[in-house]
Amino acid sequence: MTPSQHSNLSQPANVSRIIDHLLQDYDIRLRPNFGGQPLRIGMDLTIASFDSISEVNMTHFFANDKNSYLHDVTERNVMVRLYGDGYVAYGMRFTTTLACMMDLHYYPLDSQNCTVEIENGYTVLDVVMNWENVPVRGVEEAQLPQVTIIGYETTDRVEILATGSYQRLSLIFQMQRNIGYFIFQTYLPSILIVQLSWVSFWINHEATSARVALGITTVLTMTTISTGVRSSLPRISYVKAIDIYLVMCFVFVFAALLEYAAVNYTYWDNRAKKKKPIAVPTNKSQHLTCLIKVRNTREEKKLHLKDDIIDLQDIHLSPIPSLRKRQKSSQKSSVSPSRTTPIENVPSLPPSFRLMNPHSPLRCATCNARKYGRRKRVACATKQRLLQNLKKSACALRSTLPCITDVSIIDRVSRIVFPVSFIIFNAIYWGFYIF
């Protein structure tokens, strides 16, 4: 080819003639080599940047498509390159927000795998896709504030659907969450709040205002921290690693508040026992005399009540004769030995009674009232027996507890038990979720 001919080919008219010749029998609605072997398409991705990962929406860039758009500033960002052997390079720049289903059982000490799914609308009979030798570029330069990309892998598979078999390419990013943010925002404040609740063990037990205020403040602070952490997470049913830590910290600060309640109760209980006098009889004869007098007084009251009560349930005659006889006998017994000076306390006659028909409404109402009173007495007796059983159970439980005379012993034991328990919990927690 002479230089003049080469210059002629480089002219726009010649280039257009060549393209027209190549596209002479080409139909834009059909794939190249339609009806023959399937078209092979090689795929590769160049990552410009990662934006962020959201645990609430479980989204990140370059995953299953939820929202995407092409860049068109200043023109549509599409590149097409045609090689002499018929190879076509087609590239576009786009931003996509896609879904990534996360397992948050170990949050925030977790690792996540987020996948990019690429698929076309042609079956494997028409189009076959494959990854290039270097499928992804720019992963090493990508940086995220909350996670670190520790690796990636590519896979391809065939998805069998009702309309046919389709090729699908997958790019899986392996991400490790950075816990520095959570250490300074959640874990360290929780540890300090728990340790602050232990200060009450060194405060005098008589300083009620100081110890109660300190305990309530630490409990409310832990509640605020827990609420702030949950607001940045989706409402999931299972328990996360950070939930376990916050709940245990809340248990420790609440137990410190209950410890002072035990100290205060023990202190005032011992003080009341010291002030309560115990009456001890000086002589056995005096004790017996008192018991005899009490019993005699009770017997006299019972006899007096029996004399004044007349049961007319089965009496169908007038009670007047029996009342007159009782009045005469009482007058005889109330006269002095000289029979000249009567005693002034003469029992008065009971009110008059009327004979009632057994089937009269008044008699039925009286019977119903007696039955209701009997049921009420049975209910009261049952209630008293239950209360007595509860009191006996409480006394038995209290007898099994050690008798503490010095309340400062509780504080001294708590100064050792609480820190040791918290250290053991942290060792188990961090050993399980990290190592």
Tags for this model:
Acetylcholine Binding Protein, Chain: A; single chain; three-stranded antiparallel sheet; Methane Monooxygenase Hydroxylase, Chain G, domain 1; alpha+beta; 435 residues; 9 helices
Summarize the structure.
It is a multi-pass membrane protein. With 435 residues, the protein is α+β, with helices and mostly antiparallel strands.
What would you note in describing this structure?
This protein has 9 helices and 10 strands. The chain is α+β, with helices and mostly antiparallel strands and 435 residues long. Among the domains are: 163 residues, Acetylcholine Binding Protein, Chain: A (Distorted Sandwich); 114 residues, Neurotransmitter-gated ion-channel transmembrane domain (Methane Monooxygenase Hydroxylase, Chain G, domain 1, Up-down Bundle), CATH 1.20.58. The strands form 4 sheets. The chain has a 3-stranded antiparallel sheet with strand order 2-6-3, with no helix packed on it. β4 and β5 form a beta hairpin. α3 runs antiparallel to α4 and α4 runs antiparallel to α5. The chain is elongated and about 145 Å long. The N terminus is likely disordered.
